[in-house]
Amino acid sequence: MTFGLGLPDQVRLEGVPVSSVVHSARSFDRRADMRLSIDRPAVLRTEERVYEIRVDDLTRNGCRITSDVDLQVDTVVTLGFAGVGQSRAQIVRREELGDAFVYGCYFEQPLPSGAVTASTRNNIGRLANEGRTTDAFSPAEVKLGARHRMLLILGISSALWAAIAGGVLVFLIV
Fold first, then answer.
1. 101-130 burial, b for 16+ CB within 10 Å, e for fewer?
2. Cβ neighbours of residue 83 closer than 8 Å, sequence gap 6 or more
3. What are the E-state strand segments in 11-114?
4. Is the pLDDT confidence value at 119 over 80?
5. Cβ proximity of 73 and 108 under 8 Å
6. How far is residue 169 CA from its own chain's centroid?
């Protein structure tokens, strides 16, 4: 499966000086979108497994990732980014860098407007096995559903009205 990068399989250049081809190739950059260096953890899913990776930079149309997983060009993966969500992508470039691999990925659908900048905010936490984990929830992590919030409000207001009524009765009796 390919996502239609719009690149021809073969390009024939007859009678064109190589220097002009190199100059034209340098002046034409398909990657004109805003490219942000984010250096954040993410998740890569293949059909077989789930891997933890690093996203080096991100655009609306693709990203550059680093991983110790050996994947081939044209492999279709699903990438999960904190602050962005999941996106299917095709690996279009592969480079070995010591024990790691650097991949260029092209998204099946461009990311929504604002997703690239959302990935740089402080809304991105650590992956579970990158640091200590805890079973305790901080108060900011516990959120009640709408029904439970309504019952809590009704319970507290009923208790307050009962206290007011009891105070009034005590005042009237004395």
1. bebbbbbeeebeeebbebbeeeebeeeeee
2. 115, 118, 119, 120, 121, 123, 124
3. 36-45, 50-58, 62-67, 76-81, 85-97, 100-107
4. no
5. no
6. 59
List b or e across 38-66, with b for residues whose CB sees 16 or more CB atoms inside 10 angstroms: bebbbbbeeeeeebebebbbbbbbbbbbb
Joined tokens for residue 129: 């096995």
pTM reported for the whole predicted model: 0.53
What is the tens place of the pLDDT at every residue in 127-140? 555 544 444 444 55
Percent share of the chain, pLDDT over 70: 68
What are phi and psi for residue 109, nearest 5 degrees?
Answer: -125, 140
Type of residue numbered 159: A
Residue 3's identity, in one-letter code, is: F
